[in-house]
Amino acid sequence: MNLQGQKIVVWFSCGAASAVAAKKTIEKYGKDNTVIVVNSPVKEEDEDNRRFFNDVQDWLGQKIEIAINIDYASCSAVEVWNRRQYMSGVHGAPCTLALKKEARYQWEAINKPDWHVLGFTANEQERHDRFVITEIPNIIPVLIDEKLRKSDCFDIIKSAGIALPRSYALGYPNANCIGCVKATSPTYWNHVRKVHPEVFEHRAEQSRRIGCRLVRVKNKRLFLDELPDKARGGSMKKMSFQCGIFCEITN
Q1: How many domains in the chain?
Q2: Residue 247 neighbours by CB under 8 Å, 6+ apart
Q3: What is the pLDDT of residue 243?
Q4: The domain spanning residue 137 has which CATH number?
């Protein structure tokens, strides 16, 4: 794609793929276009994400902007669930809508970008195509064009001397919030209970109070405080929680 004089925004989610997408976009389009990298922080992410944010910012050689929904200045998913009395279900998760999508809408209204770049990797062509149809048509598939998979992005980040977000080393499939309410897998929730017991207890208490059965065991929805600690289901490696400017989970 030959672009000149365009405004391109890269939505950086503090994950490896979106970091590499930002780097590749700047290298490929930065000379003749304005490339802006934007992050919408969420309070419930692992605190090491801020370290990764700073490392990536240095690597890119430019400042990463912050987009925040003015109605949720705390950037807290817990606050969203409390205020909306809804955590997750057939309509997705309200935290992504409030803290990612609505933050994007507000940023776009002011900055009016011509193109968007997200961290869709080469093995996510179908998801990219679906997102183009349902959300944003003007996307540059930087990682797909370069045939880069998630593992390739990990290697690029490591080669740059940047440590991956701690969440990966702790066994999570991404660097999103700890205790993602879009997850229904007992494998995932028992992993949270083991690694972050305080988060598990908080999610269990809040979901019981709101009335949201977050986990599915043998096709039956349960409250987290009903989850047997030996229950398993769904591979952690195959889970993909998307919490950028869209809301999707693939187990």
Answers
A1: 1
A2: 92, 93, 96, 97, 100, 101, 182
A3: 57
A4: 3.40.50.620
